[in-house]
């Protein structure tokens, strides 16, 4: 997704999750035609590859003045468009809005790094100060009645019918953003709408800061006697994490998924598993100064009030109106098809785990902190598959080479590392590759990789861009980036990751390929439809299990020998293993998200609401939501996934259906003709076309949910 010129509800998403920035100067704006800026954050990107961010020169003290100047310049751009005496046309209104605010785009690139990759107490304090100012600026654009009237005139004009399909699409996107975000309001309602956005900006920033504070504060330090069951590679990483925190000789279990997950899988110390589990799943809910329960209620109350000003019954109804699902009822209907099968599978999984625990005579009942540990025992028992054994063949660098191989076969991309220091980076861990088209040798863009966990970096994995491909004012290249939180291996040794992490690695690279393969004219064509944008990345995960990748890139980190065929067979045989757990923990969060945003907030006490609703749903006691409410950043630290977390499942339906198309193709997952259709219809068009139409062009029909059920090993209901 890119920074739209009208983003009243998405500034936090833009700077937190993405940043597709173009460097061409806005047309006809006197204030931005200065020859130079003294503030590096405002300056056009410089150096090779059409210019790159000057990360080596970024300084936090420059951020506030840069944002203030960038906002002022963008507002000047907007005022000039709004007050143009000429009749509204696509070129003098919509296209000019696409050009406006480029200096601010560049500032957002750096701001995103401080929010996500280089956070600090000082940066977080500054974010609290900046967030409401960004909201005020955003409201000034959305509530500019002259500007909206011009956009509306173009949307309703005879000219609209003669525009290209992409021009019609971005005109509609622009009009829709104004109309759905308060542009039609008058008087006190208009003022209240802006005030609500300002309050929400502050609250969402505080929510995120509170979660990060708990991630940094709750670290479990172990001594050598407490390492029972843990793989050697994990122990080495834990020692390095402790040393980084000034605890040499100890072992740190950090409060991140990449540390928590393997610890709960392998540690034989049940009381420590419970402690690590509670630390992770109680983030933002510890009843202290960083507790988010009160903030959640405030956010829900304000969102509800805001959409009621627009005439909607609830936030979910407003949010889904322009998504593929269209209505909360449609989103819920999909989840209702999958939920019973997922819960039933959990019961089977728990029964298998309990049987092993009983056989071992440990006299326990499976609790949430036992699930991963005993699940691993079941995996070994049922499939003779040891996750740690698999991990020895999953080297981070080799997996990156595998991703490059897939990109070469499907997209005709070639990656070569930039090692001459010409591209500045913001941390020594970051590496950069140039991307070219293999056939023509044409430069496509750059790919930045920031793979390792560290203090000040938010948890999880994500992708964004520093610049996106457009041609409206000359062809621009792509500056894409992938970010992960893997535990770095010891100096000179390979970093080994789990199978799940390897899938995530491919997933995020799918987002990068989506950016790199774009073929659109206008910046706004990169804006995303949330229940569709995960599809491309989810689909790329499927290439991890192709024979071509397995046979070439899954080699032992010490011997260099390929992964044994017997082990590969076990991996494939266990493909649907633990689908009850993974599906149910995800859907618990997705269903709660819809419930939060379709329920009168006066009736919601977050802690009680979560417990009551999950009990009503029949959520198994042996696991919890993937993202419990108090650290559910997808929906409470911004609005990108609010009332839309279901989108991963919606996209998974597309993924499963598209994967079956490749499985059935003559050339399998590397079928050239189908790969060409994939790139043409599902990757290159971005949001320049309605996603449903794009998928039909690829598949010849709409996606079939039964493919998802087959993928997960769930029973498929027969049609009447």
Automatic annotation (TrEMBL):
Q: Which organism is it from?
A: Pseudoalteromonas aurantia 208
All copies of domain Oligopeptidase A N-terminal, residue ranges: 85-190
Alphabetical keyword list: Hydrolase, Metal-binding, Metalloprotease, Protease, Zinc
Q: Which domain of life is it from?
A: Bacteria
**Bound cofactor: record note:** Binds 1 zinc ion.
Give the family per the record.
Belongs to the peptidase M3 family.
Q: Which gene encodes it?
A: dcp
Please give the cofactor(s) recorded in the UniProt entry for this protein: Zn(2+)
Q: InterPro entries this protein is in?
A: M3A_DCP, MetalloPept_cat_dom_sf, Neurolysin/TOP_dom2, OpdA_N, Pept_M3A_M3B, Pept_M3A_M3B_dom
EC id: 3.4.24.70
The protein here is known as: oligopeptidase A
Q: Catalytic activity, per the record?
A: Hydrolysis of oligopeptides, with broad specificity. Gly or Ala commonly occur as P1 or P1' residues, but more distant residues are also important, as is shown by the fact that Z-Gly-Pro-Gly-|-Gly-Pro-Ala is cleaved, but not Z-(Gly)(5)
Primary enzyme class: hydrolase
Stretches assigned to the Peptidase M3A/M3B catalytic domain: 263-711
Identify the taxonomic lineage of the organism of origin: Bacteria, Pseudomonadati, Pseudomonadota, Gammaproteobacteria, Alteromonadales
